[in-house]
Amino acid sequence: MSAETLPQFFLERVEQYAAGKVALRQKEFGIWQEFTWQDSYTQVRDLALGLLALGVERGDRVATVGDNDRFYLWAYLGLLAIGGVQVGLYTDAGAEEMAYVIDHSDAVVVFAKDQEQCDKLLEIRDRLPKVRRVIYWEERGLWDYDDPWLVSFSAVQAEGRALAGDLDARLAEEAARGRGDDLAVICYTSGTTGLPKGAMLTHANLVTATAAFNAVDRRLDTDNHVSLLPLGWIAEHVLGVAPHVMYGILMNFPEAPETVRANVREIAPEGILYNSRLWDNLVGMVQVRINEASWWNRQLYQRFLPIGYRMADKRLHNEAPDISLRLAYAAGDLLLFGPLRDQLGLSRVRSAYTAGAALSPDAMRFFHALGINLKQIYGSTEVAGGATVHRDGDVRFASVGKPAPGIDVKTGEDGEILIAGPNVFRGYYKDPAATEKALLVDGDGVRWFRTGDAGYIDADGHVIYLDRVKDMVVLASGDSFSPQFIEGRLKFSPYIRDVMAVGDQQHDIVTALVIIDFENVGAWAEKKGLGYTTFLDLSQKPEVYALVQQAVEEVNRNLPPRGQVRRFVLMHKEFDADEAEMTRSRKLRRGFLAQRYQAIIDAMHRGDERVRVQAPVRYQDGREGFIETELRIMQL
User: Which helix (H) or strand (E) element contains residue 627?
Assistant: First the structure.
């Protein structure tokens, strides 16, 4: 394709769909309003030319704040069409945060949806000397505002229509001036370790990242996309706007943030991205609804969910199910899985994505049992969103997938994940020091983005994310490991409540203090006919050690050899916040635990088979005392 920029792709789609194909929908007053590609073109053209009339020039920054809707999209495409640079703000940003981003980005115009956002901007007006106009598109509540600094969306469009000459030719001329290496957007990072940094992304960054993901999961012009991710975040750019103009997918804008879930169900998109928290919430929602359902529906759930898990396991391991499993799953799909997908708005989804924090294998497996093709992606704003993605038939819970086509991933000497390709950003706006730190240029002139994340690439090319590099622990051998990765993965097991992975520069191996989940392990023991009396008694059963060993070995399979757990002990008691072993939010107090259980840790490093411990106990009558017991040390 000859197009290099998003507006150029947009004009191609407008020409392609001149017959009146629907480009987008927006729900208003309970009704889905439809707009054709020609409707969008007219709105974008008038807005773009109106910005020219206001004096916006090529390369100028334009900030936007408001919920995702058609006016946001038209403003986005209009300002890019004349060479402007989009700067997205979060709708819930406070006045101080907005002031910093708008001023730091040198924005000359701000699009603000409504009265609420305009009021914030008026509050910080004296801190925005570069902003010439604020353009609003929802006029309710602003009729009585008499301030020339504020101007309506429609008034700007009227200015565009009033320009002399052929308006269509003027827009085509402006869009044709664009090049792939032109700056398209500045996305500001979260700023968790300081002030937010503005990542500069070109049209080529967005286009190539979108094309890479399209090569894995193809987008069609019959696909629906629900625009629910904020445009202050990179994901909506490469999963929504860019595929819309490149491949003609239909954009659908929810009626309000509160109606997103209902609107998703109505549209039933073919692709969707939720963060791990939202996927976890959906699991909980399904379980609550099943508990409240009729006796018949509960029976269907109990009967067919195990069949769904069996089918999911076959698919996840790329194995062919036999005829009996296929028939049983087909019945389950008709009676249970299909209706559940419909309730979740995922009845037509081909590719569902999770990003951010790791989603538990149980949750991933649950959605695959329902027939939802859920996959992990990994990336960041600096690489235009995603760099890796799971392929169909090759979903592995411990990995974040393989590099997307055209994108290179490797690890540095310290285990840091490095990413190279046409998706790597230009740098941080007005911050050359941070840019130099983030980009590593090798001897061949290839620019590698330093993610700050630790990980490795397994023999099959899957990228395994471990932790932030700064949180890795170095062993005496010089190898490093991630305590949080090991602990988090082990706690995916229903039989493990808490873990503390232990290692330092004085020892060559990783060890672990493991706390069993007394309730779940107790239920398992009762089913096995295994008798026990106390937490201590149950934890030291050989059968329980074997049960936990399976979980440890499963996690070890996804770790480099030097970072695997080699010895562990099942503790005689739970970690207790009242004893200062953890915080009230259940975060481990590592230093205190290492000191308190130093004898156990030393015994594991020596290679002892057992260790005697003295444990404090508090009786119901308030008396305190000690018991002595012996703990077994398991060696792998």
Answer: strand 624-635
